[in-house]
Amino acid sequence: MSMIEFHNVEKYYGDFHALHNINLTIEAGETVVLIGPSGSGKSTLIRSVNGLEQIREGQLIVNGQDLANPKTDINRIRKNVGMVFQHFNLYANKTILENIMLAPRIVLHRDEQENKKIAMEMLDRVGLADQAAKMPAQLSGGQKQRIAIARSLAMKPKCLLFDEPTSALDPEMVDDVLNIMKTIAEDSSMTSLIVTHEMGFAREVANRVIFMADGRILEDDSKDKFFNGEPSNERARQFLSKILH
Ligand SMILES: Nc1ncnc2c1ncn2[C@@H]1O[C@H](COP(=O)(O)OP(=O)(O)OP(=O)(O)O)[C@@H](O)[C@H]1O
């Protein structure tokens, strides 16, 4: 079973046609980077995968369930599909450890001792185990984003969605977050779908690169074909020549 399948998906915001006939299959373990100009529909596409945007035309099958079907239980999907946003949304009045333990406790009813153990493992994985007792306000933006990643990982998802996770960070914080994302991408049991403007990262880490413009997928290539070969689509070639200079 594929992790994510879009079949002829259309998305409208009122009269505005945001996604046009999206067909896309992502297998478990893949790391797929989504790029394209501003307003091309990247966020809309990625947010639809965990039901933050509703799809009512076509089929969108995530972890075996069709999100275009209103009867599908979105909470079951979200247990397996985590999301990391541009803004980290940590609870300001809870410690870092509590922030990470909250969702597994409430959603998964994970045993408290086990929950703490896993939370500490995830904090260790993002290099911030020594910050467990601190409050979010005591951390830098880059550290907060690493905590947000640890929080998503603590749910032990099959798939992680990243929507421009580094674009709100000070430049000197970006690499730390990208390095964590790289270790996640290397984990073959995890599927990652990443919207980013960090082309160096895409070039190094992606299995596949998808280029979107005007709500359409115009190119879906292996990383090597996209960056080293010639994308077949003219707009993708233009985009590439702009960003690589
Ligand atoms: N809630 C909404 N209501 C109406 N239009 C929307 C809504 N969200 C997005 N759009 C429009 O849909 C189009 C695609 O937006 P989206 O945020 O998916 O693009 P994007 O490729 O992620 O852009 P960026 O790189 O700037 O984040 C844009 O024209 C945007 O204005």
TrEMBL record:
<keyword id="KW-0547">Nucleotide-binding</keyword>
<dbReference type="InterPro" id="IPR003439">
    <property type="entry name" value="ABC_transporter-like_ATP-bd"/>
</dbReference>
<dbReference type="InterPro" id="IPR027417">
    <property type="entry name" value="P-loop_NTPase"/>
</dbReference>
<dbReference type="GO" id="GO:0015424">
    <property type="term" value="F:ABC-type amino acid transporter activity"/>
</dbReference>
<keyword id="KW-0067">ATP-binding</keyword>
<dbReference type="Pfam" id="PF00005">
    <property type="entry name" value="ABC_tran"/>
</dbReference>
<dbReference type="InterPro" id="IPR017871">
    <property type="entry name" value="ABC_transporter-like_CS"/>
</dbReference>
<feature type="domain" description="ABC transporter">
    <location>
        <begin position="4"/>
        <end position="239"/>
    </location>
</feature>
<dbReference type="GO" id="GO:0005524">
    <property type="term" value="F:ATP binding"/>
</dbReference>
<dbReference type="InterPro" id="IPR003593">
    <property type="entry name" value="AAA+_ATPase"/>
</dbReference>
<dbReference type="InterPro" id="IPR030679">
    <property type="entry name" value="ABC_ATPase_HisP-typ"/>
</dbReference>
<keyword id="KW-0813">Transport</keyword>
<protein>
    <submittedName>
        <fullName>ABC-type polar amino acid transport system, ATPase component</fullName>
    </submittedName>
</protein>
<dbReference type="InterPro" id="IPR050086">
    <property type="entry name" value="MetN_ABC_transporter-like"/>
</dbReference>
<dbReference type="GO" id="GO:0016887">
    <property type="term" value="F:ATP hydrolysis activity"/>
</dbReference>
<comment type="similarity">
    <text>Belongs to the ABC transporter superfamily.</text>
</comment>
